[in-house]
Specification:
GO terms for molecular function: tRNA-uridine aminocarboxypropyltransferase activity. The chain is α/β, with parallel strands linked by helices. The protein folds into 2 domains: 137 residues, no CATH class; 215 residues, no CATH class. It has 13 helices and 8 strands. A 6-stranded parallel sheet has the order 4-3-7-5-8-6, with helices on both faces. Strands 1-2 form a two-stranded antiparallel ribbon. Strand 3, helix 7 and strand 4 form a beta-alpha-beta unit. Helix 4 crosses helix 6, helix 7 packs across helix 13 and helix 12 runs antiparallel to helix 13. It binds zinc ion (ZN). Zinc ion binds next to loops.
Length: 395
């Protein structure tokens, strides 16, 4: 049987997480397939190309690990390569030189391994501790997570679908146009970046990166783009899908939309801003901290809260078919987006934009991901049932 090195695919960077562990309530917009498709660490033999073959360039005798702008953008973003990520990669290269020991992400989970890992752990913890401000700590934490994932996934994951190359599902995704009057923002925790069972990525795989834009928590190059867009759009055009316990949470029916400049059958006209919907793409535990960061809306728009909406159905109908799959969490990010599209379609102001069909297209992508992940588990001889006991493996 074909078997590849098993990995959870998450580089372990646990020591300095600033995330809140609070989970007093459940954010309906997040979660992914991790609880089901958590891959247990194991050391199986590998038929995949070795990491060293995949991502290490040799130049003038030195081993140099790099991430190019093109490669960065290939993972699903149009932003510049974050400067702090570049700095951290440079630091890791320096450490590699000083130690005369090659960094190794081999084997399982895209994790750093061996002596290099030990030394790098010491170094990054010291750097983190020395930072005296929480904003800098968060940015460092996020950038290091991203740097590790970029290096550890190189040559192993398909850039478009974030699955192992042998599991690539790209041919199963049918690109679709999202109604030009709306735009999704996937506000993603760095630990969910390049996670195979993440479902937020399905939004831009299906609708494109302009219609569904990745914004990684704590990556300033991403957050600035997002906030600039929100500021330009105006507060009335920004909604966060989140049950804010401190404010009156509204429903889709409360959205007031002024359709000037929009026509269902015409391209967006100049000056017409789309409705922006933020989906928080992280674990329950991380979502509270992520939402608090979004509350910097107060800096942009004054004292008022970030406008939030909750779904009334949570896309129950669209996810119904998936229920037999015990591994699927009904509240995954893509399900939230499907639910939002479905509920918007029932709103009189939006019912002529084909949002129901767009929900179906996204659901097809969800099905394709589920199938790919299921096939992988079966191929590896693993159960596809929920395995709670591995819950801690990848978080
Ligand atoms: Zn692919």
């Amino acid at each position: 049987m074909l078997s590849s090195t098993t990995r959870t695919f998450i580089t372990k960077c646990t020591s300095s997480s600033p995330s809140s562990s609070s989970s007093t309530f459940r954010n309906q917009t997040k979660m992914d397939l991790r609880t089901t498709f958590r891959v247990r660490h194991s050391r199986s033999s590998s038929s995949s190309p070795s990491r060293e073959d995949c991502f290490v360039d040799s130049k003038e005798g030195d081993t140099i690990t790099t991430v190019s702008l093109q490669e960065w953008q290939g993972w699903g973003t149009t932003s510049q390569l974050p400067s702090m990520v570049v700095d951290i990669i440079e630091d890791m290269k320096d450490l590699e030189k000083n130690m005369d020991s090659q960094m190794n992400f081999g084997g399982i989970g895209g994790k750093l391994k061996g002596n290099f890992k030990v030394q790098e752990d010491k170094k990054h913890r010291a750097t983190y501790q020395a930072l005296n401000d929480s904003e800098k700590k968060l940015q460092f934490f996020s950038a290091r997570q991203i740097a590790c994932r970029l290096l550890g996934s190189k040559g192993y994951l398909c850039q478009k679908c974030w699955l192992a190359l042998e599991d690539c599902m790209c041919s199963k995704v049918i690109p679709s146009s999202l109604w030009h009057g709306m735009r999704f923002w996937l506000y993603m925790h760095p630990k969910d970046f390049l996670r195979q069972n993440n479902t937020g990525k399905l939004l831009w795989q299906t609708f494109g990166v302009q219609a569904a834009t990745l914004c990684i928590y704590g990556i300033s190059e991403h957050e600035e783009v997002m906030w600039n867009a929100f500021e330009h759009a105006g507060k009335d055009m920004v909604w966060c899908l989140y049950p804010n316990k401190n404010a009156l949470t509204k429903s889709v029916q409360d959205i007031v939309f002024h359709p000037e400049g929009f026509d269902a059958h015409q391209p967006k006209t100049n000056g017409a801003e789309p409705l922006n919907f933020i989906l928080i793409d992280g674990t329950w535990n991380n979502s509270a901290a992520m939402f608090r960061r979004l509350e910097r809306a107060q800096l942009v728009w004054g004292e008022e809260d970030l406008p939030c909406i909750s779904l009334t159905t949570l896309g129950a109908s669209s996810m119904h078919r998936l229920r037999p799959q015990p591994s699927w969490d009904r509240t995954c990010t893509a399900a939230a987006a499907i639910g939002l599209l479905s509920e918007l379609h029932l709103h009189p102001a939006f019912n002529s934009h084909g949002l129901d069909n767009q929900a179906d297209m996204l659901e097809d992508s969800v099905d394709a991901l589920l199938e790919a992940l299921t096939s992988r588990r079966l191929r590896m001889g693993r159960s596809i049932t929920r395995r709670e006991r591995h819950k801690g493996d990848v978080c």
